[in-house]
User: Fold these one by one.
Assistant:
Number 1:
Amino acid sequence: MIYDRVLIRYGELSTKGRNRNVFVTKLKKNIKDIMKNEGNIQIQAGRDRMYLLLNGASYERIKEKLSNVFGIQSFSPVVRTEKNIEKVKEAALTLVKANFSPGNTFKINARRSDKTFEIDSQEMNSVLGAHILKNIDGIKVDVKHPDIELLVEVRKEGVFLSCEWVKGAGGLPAGVSGKAMLLLSGGIDSPVAGYMMMKRGVEIEAVHFFSPPYTSERAKQKVIDLAKKLTSFGGTIKLHIVPFTEIQQKIHETVPANYTMTSTRRFMLTIADEIRKKNGGLALVTGESLGQVASQTMESMLAINDVTSTPVLRPLIAMDKLEIIEISRKIGTHDISILPYEDCCTIFTPPSPKTKPKLERVEHYESFFDFEPYVREAVEKTETLLISEEFESKEFQDLF
Ligand code: ATP
Ligand code: MG
């Protein structure tokens, strides 16, 4: 292995003024968490970049994990040499040779951040270019579309060389924007909504409404698996599983069929908000997209949202289903989401829910029954699982 470290560039982060220290510290912690099983990696965090010293760890595995970490604009595996032109020539040749196959073209892209170094970038380009042309048979220069681009950067700490540039996940480090509760169903949309908020630095705790025996253990396992997928973008996730059967039954006994959907959503939001308060969250997140289904019209949202003044973040609101599906594929949740197991809403969905429910109507219907104790009980009986990459569910194993 030639590369001995990975250079991480922050991008957007470095423009965040006074907050930068907080961001960099958080990013460092998130990377450390995600790399905890990858050997003795050391992290050196600076103002505008970070280095992971590999100490023999596999770059390929680290590359895969790093590409999911929010707050990284790009990264490159690098070798470092002393600021001595002979050493730089040697390292440059080794790197280009390692990446060369017959017929390949190359280009040197040198940058001198440390102006005290006597060779400027133009001269560095030509010295290194000549050295490579002389020592690799058949290699040619192509400055527009090279097969191999050797990045050389002269900095105070030394000269850094790399033939690889990997686009990072972008966004902000998970956790710097505070915590929100994600209403996580087993569907396609809500995991994507969670991912998008995580990308903006939000720490997510998931809340799932579960209605046994109408919904099976498998439906629950599906949600656990979805939460597990999301952990690769921000580390461990708390998953709150709310027993929702009784409330759903009471709604059905109390509220006319075409209003049960609206009412169900109102209680979901109410309960999620209680769980938020208990856990120090600042907002709620849903996977709603305008006009997608009956409960996602603006009239519905007005009637549903009325139960709380807590911000309800809906990152998918203006997205098309196909765009959402594309993201779900990219983040690996799609194939879990499309598994058939019913969730609590599908089962209780009336044949024709109101697409334009009226707030006064739903309030009127709900006034016939005291739901308060049921809400309290659901919150009290909520089971919380700590989902990490290694999480395995006991109940699910028992099914086989
Ligand atoms: P999804 O694909 O996320 O299930 P959907 O298109 O099926 O969304 P709805 O069923 O109307 O839409 O749900 C809207 C949102 O309400 C979901 O995105 C999710 O945030 C929340 N939600 C629905 N059912 C549940 C549930 N059982 N537990 C937690 N949240 C839920
Ligand atoms: Mg759904």
Note: The chain has a mean pLDDT of 91.
Number 2:
Amino acid sequence: MRSLLFVPADGGSKLAKAMASGADAVIVDLEDSITPERKPQARAAALEFLKSESAKAQRPRLLVRINGLDTGMTDADLDAIVAGKPDAVVFPKAEGGSTVVHLDAKLTAREAIAGLPEGSIKILAQAVESAAGLFAAGTYRDVSRRLIGMTWGPEDLSAELGAEANRDEHGNLTEPYRLARNICLYGAAAAKLPAIETIYADFRNLEGLRRDTDEARRDGFTGRLAIHPAQVAVINEAFTPSPEQIAKAKMVVAAFAAKPGAGAVGIDGKMFDRPHLVRAQNLLARTGN
Ligand code: COA
Ligand code: MG
């Protein structure tokens, strides 16, 4: 998934717009964009939306962001939406593998009640958006076969730290949030999961989004959260490997295949060893090559 577009569950016409945005996934939000008084209506709207969209053939993946385990609202969220067969839930303020195991169990019970195959609803963990979450980011390996990725968020983190800002005057993340971003990358790599870059809040600044997203891809993120339909094309393009990159990856794979047992090969006067091969294979797998 390259682009994952948030839309508030009570967003009315925004829901259809999100579906038509070109995003690889639409995340119907029950958490931060919904006030506590509106949660019940939002849950009902999310279910109605899922029921009308989930059976369609050509569609983005449908995700629902539920409320976190410490809110007391998780059960009501799941009770409301599982029957709509979302592809996955987005799990905010995850605090390590044990919290995913907890959510996994809640999903298993509701899948049984709804007659869905066990494990069919996946989990995308917002793993680094609290201080405790940051310290638990290395504990996600093999905890649940539902886990499809890890992401992070500076907004809740900066609220928790009591910080004045999380980006400097040039729009770059300040040190504490750079650290959180990087820990998300390492945590995801340690768990062998895709790392999904957080939102870019300045949604009119597509130039800034492009730069920031190019850096995310350079560093190993494979997709990004979006909050506005205008961001989707920029994100999709940034995470779509160019024909040159695909050709280069095929060349690396072919060079190793031609020399079985070789630990390193030379291509055009440059050394390529195992890490290069793994990177090339990952890129080809991601693009269906
Ligand atoms: N999904 C679908 N459609 C969206 C959208 C979204 N996330 N954000 C904006 N749109 C639609 C608007 O409804 C508007 O439609 P219209 O032309 O028919 O009126 C159009 O795109 C242009 O929107 P624009 O005027 O530029 O923005 P806005 O002021 O209406 O909305 C936000 C700004 C931030 C409120 C809106 O982008 C939004 O709701 N984003 C998601 C918020 C969210 O889910 N947050 C939680 C995760 S961090
Ligand atoms: Mg949040």
Note: The first helix runs from residue 13 to 19.
